[in-house]
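Following up on my earlier thread - several people asked me to post the actual chain instead of describing it. Fair enough. Here it is, all 175 residues.
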Amino acid sequence: WMVYAIVVLNGFALVVDNPARTTIVSELVGDDDFPNAVGLNNATMQTARIAGPAIAGPLIVLFGTAVCFAVNSLSFVAMLVALAMMRGSEMRRRPPIGRHKGQMRDGLRYIWRKRDLRAALLIMAVVGTLSFNMSVITPLMAKVEFGGDAATLSWMVIALGCGALVGALAFATRS
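Reply from S.P.:
Thanks for posting it. Predicted structure:
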């Protein structure tokens, strides 16, 4: 039950985190650079997905998981410093869009009428439903299916991150 609770809480956090991360990118760059900036932001996240397990795997094997939690918490200091150094006066803020009844329905209707947007939404629904729990399944797969340990899991997550990084960089270079 504890794993389910953690996964549900993580999902609630991602509902806030992902849009906020994309929004801040739009405030840092102009409209012309926005698609590339989103790709580079994603590349940064994928690089962390590669570096984190590459560091964590050996640390877990040598010192246990507690050290990894300590190192991970220290890694957030750099992010807090970077956020504190941002100059709000240089952000490209837009006035907020007013809220009105039926806004979500109108947005979903618009997406459904556009074939490319509809396809992207359906693909994300399938991917989100079936694979966003990879952080729960992958450790079990590394241990049960492959008979491995933290190092095995580390290599699996690094491989996943490498593929995602290549995709993010390819996206960032598109016009």
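Helices lie at 2-28, 34-63, 65-85, 103-113, 115-131, 134-145, 150-172. That should answer part of your original question.
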